[in-house]
Design a protein that fits this description.
The chain has four helices and no strands. It is mainly alpha-helical. Pfam families: Phage_TAC_18.
């Protein structure tokens, strides 16, 4: 039986964690630099034409529903174990569970929350591993 609220505008459909992860990855790796380049292009249009400023790719387009998950990740990002020799583990399930209970997420909503948060946290761990690898190679 389908609930009427599932058809609301902007409903998050299954399989969207790739788009959320791509948008989060873009924000981690490129967003700050691209904003800085846009600011430079606005101040000095002859030196840096606006056409040369990179834009956010379509697959990494941020949607309004991403904001809830990014805020949740910011609140939970330090609820993980850190290794004595460096490295980070994924955010603990109990942290997701406590956050979800606080905001009334249960059942299917919690499953979706956990899936999306895991996708974001995985992108973070990949980003950190790349940074650590770059630092070791220098």
């Amino acid at each position: 039986m389908r609930r009427p609220c599932r058809q609301e505008k902007g409903r998050v459909r299954p399989g969207r964690n790739k788009k959320l992860a791509a948008a989060f990855r873009y924000d981690l790796e490129r967003n700050g630099q691209d904003k800085w380049l846009a600011k430079i292009a606005a101040e000095f249009p002859l030196e840096l034409p606006r056409e040369k400023v990179p834009t956010r790719p379509e697959e990494a387009r941020a949607e309004y529903w991403h904001d809830f998950y990014w805020r949740a990740w910011e609140a939970l990002r330090f609820d993980r174990q850190y290794g004595a020799m460096g490295g980070e583990s994924p955010i603990a399930f109990i942290a997701y569970d406590a956050y979800a209970r606080r905001y009334g997420l249960e059942g299917e909503a919690f499953d979706r929350f956990h899936t999306f948060m895991t996708a974001i946290d995985t992108e973070w761990l990949i980003h950190v591993a790349k940074k650590e690898g770059e630092a070791e190679n220098k």
